[in-house]
Write the structure tokens for this entry.
Amino acid sequence: MSTNNRREFLKIGALAGLGLISSNVLQAKDSIMKEYDEKLIDLKSEKRILGPGKHQLEVAAIGLGCMGMSYHRSFVPDRQMSINLIRNAADLGLNLFDTAEAYGPHSNEELVGEALQPIRKEILIATKFGFVDGMPSKGLDSKPETIKRVVDQSLKRLRTDYIDLLYQHRVDPNVPMEDVAGTVKELIQAGKVRNFGLSEASAENIRKAHAVQQVTALQSEYSLVTRQPEQTVIPVCEELGIGFVPYSPLSRGLITGYINERTKYNASNDNRPALPRYQKDAIIANWPLIDTLKDFGDMRGLTVAQVALAWILAQKKFIVPIPGTTKWAHLQENFDSASYEFKPEELRELTASIDKIKIVGERAVGQQAQQINN
Ligand SMILES: NC(=O)c1ccc[n+]([C@@H]2O[C@H](COP(=O)([O-])OP(=O)(O)OC[C@H]3O[C@@H](n4cnc5c(N)ncnc54)[C@H](OP(=O)(O)O)[C@@H]3O)[C@@H](O)[C@H]2O)c1
């Protein structure tokens, strides 16, 4: 349903609810709907800024992670449904679309490119380089010649002649960060790339990169079960004016209440079965978090996912999460979470309750664990 249709639907609901009986009631209805319309318009127009100076991007408070439409989330939905979803997201007001060479590999960039081609100038595309043949299992590769080659290939798949935000997907210990930043700087000068980002980089590497080429955004895992960025990289982003883009802000669906100990995955296209937090015992042990968010949300008309996203958005104005979804209902739900404003006391109390819950299960293991926060 488009935003306009949704508004009409809600108006009709409000009219029916009010019974259309007197002019006083009609006036009251008008004022309620005006307030509601204004809120929706505010929601659609609320923008956040990622990045400093000449390398700022103005984005909606919530972006769209497109990975799960092709990769790592068990099922792959019908391609045309995903294209429609991406276009409807832009209609709703989302303007930051996240993909990577590695998602598929390649097929997710192709999907995003096809979906966004008709509205290319109205939206922002973020993609990433950094693995051998675009495959994380083959190891890291951020050699300058690889970055340049991958960017040319990504541009073709994305059906565009510029990338709004190009991230290094993981820091490559074999290539000095200054060389990576210098290569992206050249690509910016050549007009193929507009802004530079890092993913899962350490504070030290963020500083090194930023000294060569201003960094627009750091994209790292951040959610109510992964709070480590608060200690290190978020303060550095704040200091340098760099935006922070939390990936997996719903912890891959865990912080929604939809995943439980009976959830089945397709292990050939899902990384969750290999991660400690998605094991039965950990899901059960961490359930008090879901209960806490549900209790908070139930009293305010919010879902568990909405409380989780609203909490992230309330931390800093330069934070723009990119929840992934394959469903229009979830997309609207996630986008609407940006309209909830916590009262300071309320946020303090919710955070205090969350802080008391000890999260069970490591965030990552093996090669994945070695490649984060470098
Ligand atoms: N930089 C990196 O290294 C990195 C790593 C991972 C991901 N990412 C990016 O971050 C994006 C999001 O990450 P993610 O997909 O790992 O995790 P996520 O956004 O935390 O969770 C996505 C999962 O949650 C479900 N979901 C979303 N909204 C929901 C709602 N309102 N209610 C119930 N379930 C909901 C989705 O299923 P449905 O489809 O059923 O809604 C999907 O399975 C990716 O698309 C990708 O662009 C980046």
Remarks:
- The two ends are 43 Å apart (CA to CA).
- Residues 1 and 329 are 9 Å apart (CA to CA).
- The pocket of NAP is lined by residues 65-68, 73, 98, 169, 199, 219, 247-253, 256, 258, 305, 322-327, 330, 333-334 (CB under 6 Å).
